[in-house]
Structure prediction request, 163 residues.
Amino acid sequence: MNALEINQRTLSLAFPPLTLATLLTAVGAGILADGTWEFWARVITPLWVGGPLQPAALVQSVFGFQSWPLAELIHLVVGVVFYPLGYLFIAKPIADRFLPFLPWYLVALGYGVGLWVFALYIMAHVFAGLPPFLGFVPLAWASLIGHMAFGFITGLVVRLRMG
Prediction:
């Protein structure tokens, strides 16, 4: 076996194959997870904190444009396509390699927490200039639960489809 074959074998053990089935798993997970997040954000959160989570407003703040539909579309594409791919090709392989004793649901919930940190610290604070984690107001905690639900559903779909 030469070095290229060894590297390809190592990669195939660490990452799922990039096939149509893998992409369908990611998008299916994204649709279900984003649907769960949207239900939480727009139906449950207003009952708890008095208003919905509005990620489009954050997208507008970060990118500096006025189009609400475009901001909603960006958030939708990120949730349906890119975040599930992040779980499949970053979070899950890292956990499988370095924390193999963790059950899938803790990895998935941890991924959701990571998405929340990315949204409310990196995007909201670093890029949009808002207080870190929005000052930990109730809306920030609602966002945490929504992102954890997103991560859980993503992990569940991956687990059911890929084992």
